[in-house]
Amino acid sequence: MEFFVKRLSQYFREREIISENQIDWCEYVLARYIHTITLLPLMIIIGCFFAPLMDVIILNWGVYYLRNQANGFHAKTFWGCVTFSICCEILALLLLVNLHFEILVILFVLSGLFILWVAPINNKRVHFDELEMESLRKGIRKRIAIYSAISFAVLLIVPKYFGGFALASVVVASLLLISKMGFGIQ
Questions:
Q1: Could you read off the pLDDT of 23-38 as tens digits, one per residue?
Q2: Residue 73 φ/ψ region, left for φ over 0, alpha for ψ in the -120 to 50 degree band, beta for the rest
Q3: 122 to 63, 64, 93, 142, 183: CA distances (angstroms)
Q4: Do residues 125 and 28 touch, judged by C-beta distance below 8 A?
Q5: CB 59 within 8 A of CB 92
Q6: Which of 9, 102, 104, 181 has its CA 20 to 30 A from that of 1?
Q7: pLDDT tens digit sequence for 78-100
Q8: What are the residues whose beta carbons fall under 8 Å from the beta carbon of 154, sequence distance 6 or more?
């Protein structure tokens, strides 16, 4: 996988589609999209062994939606990413079916505030400059506002699906915390 990403990035560089200083960024973006495309179907299938399909879809969508701007922990290898992602999903789904509703609401609020406080996370593979980081900060604020509005609408209309929204927020906050603690690609 890494070989393919490096070769494709080099191909883009040779054709002057990207500049020399964009190679790390290109590798990161390509790896991220390939991971998403290959990992999402696997995550949904595995998740269905632990929770209903709708909860699995909500959880995975929520994590992807928030994490896209927040960033957070990234494993150093593809297989590390696969393993860690599956473990996070299983843990979140097990919590989803076992936590009381009131606890989910509290976790949702606390994790949303934590994401606003910490996100976005930068790392050496992406190395955002300050202007890009400010843009991401604005982006995550908008996403948290939209995500919160959708979540609270779901809470009022179909409360049984709120837990997936809450735990997606908890997963993203946890990934930010793990990255801040120095684990993964820094």
A1: 777 777 787 788 788 8
A2: beta
A3: 18, 17, 28, 19, 13
A4: yes
A5: yes
A6: 181
A7: 788 788 889 999 999 999 988 88
A8: 161, 162, 165
